Amino acid sequence: MFSKVLVANRGEIAVRILRALEEMEIAGVAVYSEIDRDALHVKRAAEAYLLGPAPAAESYLNVERILEVCRESGAEAVHPGYGFLAENAAFARACEEAGITFIGPPAGAIDAMGSKTRARELMRDAGVPIVPGTTDPVEDVEAARRLIDDEIGYPVAIKASGGGGGKGFRVALEESELEKAFEGAAREGEKFFSDATVYLERYLPDPRHVEVQVLADRHGNVVHLYERDCSIQRRHQKVIEESPAPEWIVSPELRERIGKIGVEAARAVDYVGAGTVEGLLSSDEGEYFFLEMNTRVQVEHCVTEMTTGIDIVKEGIRAAAGEELSVSQEDISLRGHAIECRINAEDASKNFAPAPGTVGAYKEPTGPGVRVDAALEAGGEVSPMYDPMVAKLIVWDVDREQATRRMLRALNEYQIEGLKTLIPFHKALLATEQWARGETCRDLLEDKDWLKTLAFDAPGPAGDDDEDGEKVEQAYTVEVGGRRFDVKVIGPPLPAGSGGVGAANGGARGGRAAPKRSARTGGGGGVGGDALPSPLQGNVWKVLVEQGQAVEEGQLITIIEAMKMENEITAHKAGTIKELPIQEGGSVGPGDTLAVIADAEAE
Fold first, then answer.
1. Pairing mode, if any, of strands 550-551 and 575-579?
2. HSE-up of 274 (CA within 13 Å, CB side)?
3. 327 and 212: one domain?
4. 238 and 125 part of one domain
5. What is the pLDDT of residues 321-347, one digit of tens each?
6. 462 domain residue, yes or no
7. pLDDT in tens, 213-263
8. Phi, psi of 279 (to 5 degrees)
9. pTM of the model
């Protein structure tokens, strides 16, 4: 077994792996970017090394520097977690050449499954059912149009060959949408995976996303840990997962078949470690198709750990060290039901716009059957540079109905102040009849009117004397009718020694200066007048209009990249672009003007 392992990641997965290493009595080494100096995973590790500046390409994707830190620290192995270098075959080979163990599958398996077209070809040859479509890359839009007309038909999914996690995935419901979808998938494939090639699949209407967790060692043992249902998604990215799938969706016979498909897929590429075979379950016909294999530990591995009692991270580490799996297929059984809610720093009411910021008061839920995987703490900074998922809330109970009630209780207990998260969205969705019936809820996630009902409360109106004198925010604990409440008051500072009306236990628990009206941004408000404000902080990826150009309401103006997501910003009105103060590659903040659109009749 290893004596020291470097964790080549950040955030909650880095904390998760460090905890596993500690329990296995293996020294853990953390790495960090300049913006993550005070991050929780850095504080937790006995050793931590700076990689470089905040951009991932200069830090968490810097292979040479990571290998250098391995040599400096004496780490014998690297655990990549998920994201960044987790599915990078070149990194796995570089580790091997440096004499460092890569905790994951062999580079050949990553290569085989990393290319979605190659993976589809392998699975087809292994007898695993695949979604009808191409197994070769499609050169251009015209070639795609011919294939769709002759073989596949609409609707069609256009996918980046190296894509994953919802990146490089576009859908064309009809021929008029094909060019935009093709270009979007290719662009994201190039940006996130350095591979602009795409392929085509028949787009299944409202399918369920059902996947199976597999474990394999170097001794030929391969097992599955049954299925997870990850059908609740926005922008083809998961937000809620559960294990097992609802019993009326996946029968015992289908469960056995899905597990067998997962094992066959892993054997086909000589897999080692923890991995996930993802599939689509047709809602109409009950057909199950191979989608892709993620050659790493998954974000949602936690729900499977809760229902099987198997520590997936530890099993992956043992397999990489050459040990046999600690369990056989006969040892594995399902117990109860688990649900995971991804706590993303996003505003669901603004179509899941990223919402980075500073964490205020922070308190995690506790109690029976509740688990939180997070890297948050009061005063921590959630940067727009990285993924918006900042925590995972996982619960277990004896069945799906009771697990749902436990999740709602835990969501109500979760306190994250100063940061907009998906907690209100999760509470609303889990209370719906659609969730209770086990539907994909795709209609809700695409219903902008429903999402707008989840808007965060706007700041109260300022008084007329807002500019006169200093204002501070002060917190108090008050008791009313035998119950204690935390309240906040914004106003002039209290005289020294004053506890304030109703203050308990010494009065204020802390104060923070409130910004004056002139310092407040309008990022959280609606769009009005000629100015089109940015709804979020990020980088301008593409500008699709020019100054002086006439535009229609709803026309695409710019694409802003924030927290690893592309956000399309459209015109709020018809008119002419009078000002365009943005440029590609530049940065914008919430409330910054992206364009000024004058009414056409004003010309």
1. antiparallel
2. 26
3. yes
4. yes
5. 999 999 999 999 999 999 999 999 999
6. no
7. 999 999 999 999 999 999 999 888 999 999 999 999 999 999 999 999 999
8. -145, 165
9. 0.77
